[in-house]
Amino acid sequence: MNRLRTALATVAAAALGLAALAAAPAQATAQPAFLAASQMPPSSTPWTATQVFPGVPENGGVLCAPYKIPAQNTRYREFSTELDTNGVQVTTVARTEADAVKLVDTLRKSLAGCGPLLERQNPGLHAVSAYHGKLAVEEGAWVYSLDTADPQIGTTDIHLFSVGRDGRTVTLVRWGQMGDLADAPLTGFRTTTKTAVNKLY
Fold first, then answer.
1. 195: closest CA among 176, 175, 167, 173?
2. Can you give the three-state secondary structure of the chain, one letter per residue?
3. Angle ∠(95,98,100) on CA atoms, nearest 5
């Protein structure tokens, strides 16, 4: 009887081991989740969201960080409202965690220096970038803004950006509309950013 119990226990342990091996690839290939339209900052008209697309948006990424995010292992979703408020989330899975850290550093430098770069590229444009702090979520998230004014056209635009990381996965969220920083839902955007990073896995 003892030998039978030992044999059954051995079989059960082997079965559990096989189940764990079978589950491992599924976990390894799980795709990061994206924000839903309702998780964008509050707006006077409802948000809508596209499906999740492979690669990066048509402009090579997002304003302030064009072509900084590799297309491989990257997906994105775009958001919009009836009042021309818009946004995008771009998420990429790096080969290693060290690569993810480097990408976050690259994106943060691009966002921090975006205003002066746009002014050099567009004479007459006034553009100011600002840093709005780090959020305590997973490996961290960082929030920035870009305030632009074109005197020739008479338009002003405000954009909020965030970069967050969970292990090897990096996500960038952008929100934008006409107006200036005083019109931007900075508190709501911080909440959206935390949600985006927490939802990745």
1. 173
2. CHHHHHHHHHHHHHHHHHHHHHHHHHHHCCCCCCCCHHHCCCCCCCCEECCCEECCCCCCCCCCCCCCCCCCCEEEEEEECCCCCEEEEEEEECCCHHHHHHHHHHHHHHHHCHHHHHHHHCCCCEEEEEEEEEECCCCCEEEEEEEEEECCCCEEEEEEEEEEEECCEEEEEEEEEECCHHHCCHHHHHHHHHHHHHHCC
3. 65
> What's the pLDDT tens digit per position in 78-114?
999 998 899 999 999 999 999 999 999 999 999 999 9
Phi, psi of 197 (to 5 degrees): -70, -40
The model's pLDDT over 139-163, given as tens digits with 9 standing for 90+, comes to: 999 999 999 999 988 899 999 999 9
